[in-house]
């Protein structure tokens, strides 16, 4: 059994998009002879050592961030009798690079998961410094794995060797996320506290500026909503932030009056996908968002903004999904189109489903990662 250490600042019970994805990948990896162990920061009062779903999780209470985690992981590696075959890192800073270099010098190949585009907003000397900064940040890794050609193109600007960058599109479990029929959808709506007549517009993600929750709620207010139309927001809510408070202020402090429901974090996202009539991803910056693939696999039509990092791997706008704008008025129009024209909405949902089934099945992602791991071990 090949052993991978996944080093990530966020993991159970506090997740980000990429850690959730790899958590979902773990059973498939295990079936392919790859065992994961997780090294993470203890963000709360969780156990420092725990086994969840047959996966070892080590939480370092002395670490506060990804730099501390890199240092703590190096110390843990030095003291561990059982070394990993590969170290895989999600999210790190340049300050953690010296510790990752030392792991590499111990003969363990390191892989970095690059989930989003590096920032290129600088110009002139600042841009050059930023380029050098990023090249140094990625220097210890044998491979950089990105989920889309869009992210790879951004990495190419850093003049990173072509053979060091590997594109493995994110995969979705098409057994868990799958279409449902009208009768099952109605029953599931009732079990989740909605009426079977409700039309559900769904967003899954944290309430924060990058995710564009403010754009979505503004668009919702611009719409002429029917009484049965509901905006359902599933994901971490940060109620005390200025950003969230401004959203609630725009909703007059009573979101449910406008049929807006903040449900918080849920483990049964697949069920919410099954009851959705439209899924919206209003992000300003994103990687290859899980929400889009999960909606497509559920045959639910999607509306996306042209965010920084939008991948070609989602298919063609107007065929597999609808492309909006950051303007809330335009986003409202796109949502209206899918709510009002059910034949067109079904066509977009169906096209998205066939696209995901053909191109983004989780098994392709799992096989690609395992082949990369074998390549790393062979080249030791």
Question: How would you concisely characterize the structure shown here?
Answer:
The chain has 380 residues and is of the alpha/beta class. The chain has 13 helices and 14 strands.
Describe this structure in words.
- By secondary structure, the chain is an alpha/beta fold.
- The protein has 2 domains: 2-171 and 362-378, Rossmann fold, CATH 3.40.50; 182-359, Rossmann fold, CATH 3.40.50.2000.
- The protein has 13 helices and 14 strands.
- The strands form 2 sheets. It has an 8-stranded mixed sheet, with helices on both faces. Strands 11-10-9-12-13-14 form a 6-stranded parallel sheet, sandwiched between helices.
- Strand 6, helix 4 (124-138) and strand 7 form a beta-alpha-beta unit.
- Helix 2 runs parallel beside helix 3 and helix 10 (290-297) crosses helix 12 (342-359).
- It is globular, with a radius of gyration of 21 Å.
- The chain starts with a strand and ends with a helix.
- The mean pLDDT is 93.
């Amino acid at each position: 059994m090949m052993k991978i250490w996944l080093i990530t600042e966020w993991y159970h019970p506090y997740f980000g998009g990429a850690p959730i994805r790899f958590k979902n990948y773990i059973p498939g990896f295990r079936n392919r002879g790859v065992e994961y162990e997780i090294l993470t920061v203890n963000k709360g009062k969780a156990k420092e050592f725990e086994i969840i779903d047959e996966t070892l999780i080590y939480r370092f209470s002395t670490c506060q961030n990804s730099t501390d985690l890199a240092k703590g992981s190096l110390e843990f590696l030095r003291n561990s009798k059982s070394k990993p075959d590969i170290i895989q890192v999600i999210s790190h800073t340049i300050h953690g690079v010296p510790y990752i270099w030392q792991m590499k010098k111990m003969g363990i190949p390191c892989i970095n998961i690059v989930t989003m585009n590096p920032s290129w907003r600088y110009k002139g000397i600042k841009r050059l410094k930023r380029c050098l900064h990023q090249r140094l940040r990625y220097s210890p890794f044998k491979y950089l794995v990105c989920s889309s050609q869009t992210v790879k193109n951004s990495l190419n600007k850093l003049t990173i060797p072509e053979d060091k960058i590997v594109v493995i599109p994110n995969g979705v479990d098409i057994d868990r996320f799958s279409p449902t029929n009208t009768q099952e959808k109605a029953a599931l709506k009732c079990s989740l506290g909605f009426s079977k007549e409700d039309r559900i517009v769904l967003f899954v993600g944290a309430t924060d500026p990058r995710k564009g929750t403010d754009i979505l709620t503004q668009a919702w207010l611009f719409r002429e909503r029917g009484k049965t139309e509901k905006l359902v927001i599933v994901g971490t809510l940060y109620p005390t932030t200025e950003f969230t408070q401004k959203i609630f202020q725009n909703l007059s402090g009573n979101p449910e009056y406008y049929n807006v429901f903040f449900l918080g974090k849920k483990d049964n996202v697949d069920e919410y996908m099954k009851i959705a009539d439209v899924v919206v991803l209003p992000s300003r910056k994103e990687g290859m968002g899980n929400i889009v693939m999960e909606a497509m696999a559920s045959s639910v039509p999607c509306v996306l903004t042209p965010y920084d990092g939008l991948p070609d791997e989602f298919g063609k706008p107007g065929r597999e999904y609808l492309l909006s704008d950051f303007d809330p008025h335009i986003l409202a129009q796109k949502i209206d189109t899918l709510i009002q024209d059910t034949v067109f909405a079904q066509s977009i949902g169906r096209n998205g489903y066939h696209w995901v089934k053909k191109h983004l099945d989780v098994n392709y992602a799992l096989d690609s990662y395992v082949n990369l791991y074998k390549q790393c071990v062979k080249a030791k």
